[in-house]
Structure formats: C-alpha cells, structure tokens
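TOKENISED FOLD:
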Amino acid sequence: MTNAGLTAFGEERIGLRRETAGWLALAAALVFLVLLFGVQQAGLPQAILLVVPAALAALLIFAAWPTAALVVWTLGCGLVPLPLLGREVFLYDLFSFVLAGLWVLKVFSTGRMRFQGADWPVLIVAAAALLSVLVNLGRMSTVAERMMHEFHIRLEFLGKTNLSAGLLWSSYLLAYFFASRLADTQRKIRWTLAAVLLMALGNAVYALIRWILNPMGFSRQNRTDAFFQEAQDQGYLSALLLTGILVALALHVVKGWRRWAVFGAGGVILLNLVCNFTRAVYVEFALAATLLFGVLRSRQLILLAILAAILIAGVLMISNVDEQYLVMFTDIGSKKAQGLSLRVESWSDAIRIFREDGGFWGVGLGNYMVYSKVRVTMPSLRRVRLASAHGMYLQVLAEQGILGVAAWAIFFISLLAYFIRKLRGAGTPAQRGMNLWAVLILVMYLWDGVFYMVLLPPGHSHETLTAGYYVWVVLGLVEAQNRLAVSPRREPAEG
C-alpha cells in the first residue's frame, strides 16, 4: 500500500503498510488492556471502556477523511460539552483518542515527527506542569488526608487530583498539536476555522435567545450563557473570534459573499460579548482592537468601531438597565464576589500557599484547592472554597513554583517574538492575518493572566471545556499556517 491516496471526496487519506498497521493494532489492544486494569483498580464504571471501541471506530472513519475529523471535533466539542458517560467522559475525551490516533497514523505513514517554531514554548509549559507533579509525589498522602478532612471526599486512589488535572491539562495542550499537525493543507485550515466560527455563532445565538427571554434585561444577573462551563466563557469566546474577524476583514482575507457572512456572524458574536457582562473581556477586546488599529490604521476598522459603538448604545437604550446593576458593573470594591476585593483575597491566599506550602516547586498541579483557605458565597448561599487563584500567574506560582512561572514567561516572550517574525515575513494575506491574530491573542491573555486564567483548564476537576480550549486550537492553526508556508502541500483535486 502506498503511504497516501485520494478518496472520492478529494481528501488525502492516511495509508500504512500492513506490517505497520499490525503493530498499531497490537498497540491498541494493549492500551485497551491497560485501561481495563486502570478502570478496575479505580472502581470506575465499566461502561467507560466503551470509549475505546467507539474511538477506534471513529478513527477508521476519519482516517479516510481527516478534514471531517477536524470539523466535527472543533464544531462538536463546543456545542456538546456535556458528559457522554457518567461524569467522567466527554466528547473532547473521545476526540483526544481519535485525533491522537490520526496523528500517530500520520507519523507512521510519513516517517517523521518534528517539533519546531511554536512547538517548543508549548512543550516547555507542559514539562513544567509535569515536573510539578513528579517532585510532589511525596505529597499525595497529605493531599488525600486533607481531601477527607476538609471536604469529606475519599479519593479512590492516591494522586487522583494530579491525574485529573493532568488529563485535562494534556487535553488542552493536545488541542494545539492536533490543530498544528492535522490541518496540513490550506483547505483543512479554512474548514477548521469555519467550524470554530460556527461553534461560536451557535453559542452566541443560543445565549442571546436565553438572554432575551430573561426579564432582568441588561445586567450582571442576566449574563449571556450557553454551552460552556461558566458564563464568562461566552465573553472570552466572543472576544477571541471577534479579534480574528476584525483581522480577516481589515486584511481582506475573506472576499465576496464570505466576507458578508463573516461580517454578519461578527455582529451576532459582538452582541453576545456586549451582553455577557464580563468586565475584563471588555478591556481585553478593546486592547486588541486598539493595537490592531495602531498596526493597520484601516478606515474599515474605524467604520466597524463606529458600528460597534452604535450597537452597544442601542442595547443600553432598549434594555432595562437598573442603577444598581450599573453600580455592580463599575464598583471594583464590591464585597459580594463581584469586584476586586475577592481577587485581592484570592491573590493573597495564592502567595500564602507558595510561601507556606509549595516553596520553589509549588504544591503540584491539581492540588491548589486542597491548600486554599478562601471561601466564597454562591448564589445558592452555600459557602464553597475557591479552587483557583483567580489569576493565571499566581495559580502557576502556587502549583508549579518558580520554574512554572519561568516556563510561562518563556512561553509568552518566545511566542510573541516568533509570531511577530512570521508576521513581518508573511508571503500571503492568510499567513499575515493568522500571525497578526496570534499576536493579538497573546497580548490579550498577557493581560488576562492577572485577573483570570483562560489559558489554563479548570483547576479542580476533569470536566467540561472552557473557552481556553479554543485558544489553543487557534494557536495550533496559526502554526499550521506557518508550516504550510515553509513546506506547501498539494491540494487534492475534487471529484
């Protein structure tokens, strides 16, 4: 069998020699046996094992049409984030199996797996997270005792908090590698971007319908909320896509009817951002838009800014804006977990964890909640302990120590330098637009790291996705665009 061929869909499929396919089948069987043993030891539901044959069946289907795998993955995971099985298995877990399998097949069929460009900073932050777990293996008994004493939760096995956080963290990082490796043609990149846009549009439409039906109008108590874990995810997702839309429109990356379609989708997503009421997102998006205007000085951007201002003013005029909600929006010192006071308390606690419990190495990935002492009152009036530092830098400092913070400093500095260099040397509007988008994303999340932690997965359990998952997908697609510019691949003919 040749290493590659064309299907009836005009798609380049992955081909393997029989001997290689046999070894991979044996490896899959061994993975199944290891998973069977792990499920039995952990006392998890046996039905979880259905993930393996389901993933293998999907792998066989998508190996013949990799673009479909990328589209279903990016579109489906953001619209169907609910668990598929109990509270342990989600759609993105299934696709982690499928896409990892496609990546392995591609490596075996091409005979190479090179890391370059943006890959190294990503690997550095992954290594720092792994190291924080390894150096804290002796802490597992203490963590289990604290979980039982403080939360009345008996861990099924030692190190479960580390494993749960590690699996979720690896899913986010793998999203980058799946996008950067499997979107290896311009067509795949376009289709995957279209799927991400449709996913965000679906979230926005659903969230706005719920928002309109709520009689509380425009307020902090009626934030646009759809399929993701938290309400603020709608704001982050909207800001991420709107930044890309502004770049695409200003650089004329999309033309004709596609341009009008992207413009219309951007209007809906902008309305979702405005009504989301996440204050930090407003600042981040304004920062990205200002930087974009400074770089391009485009008249179209001025027009879009005027239209956005009119839209915002219209929403404020037709909505029932109560004065107390405006106070809640502007009062950063609110005592009800709405302002800066909660942040200061959680930041102080994160520093305490670093000084008293973690030290140079931190307390270990996934262990933050065990050592946290800050409690917050939920809408149900139940007091719960915070599972995060409400800031990425302090979260990393507490869990991963000095080396973790250093790894993230390297991540931001090296990626900004890399994408700026690629932006200056871009040979096509698509490459220029993608790299400019990446630069704006990094600037946004440099700021975001002070108040939130979107680039990190949730700190307390293996659960549904946050908008940060798609930030890693987009960064992976930008790297895919840069790889394609260096080594362009032939687009298969249709038919």
Observations:
- Strands lie at 4-6, 12-14, 375-377, 383-385.
- The CA atoms of residues 355 and 391 lie 17 Å apart.
- The chain has two domains: 1-113, 122-495.
- The chain has 18 helices and four strands.
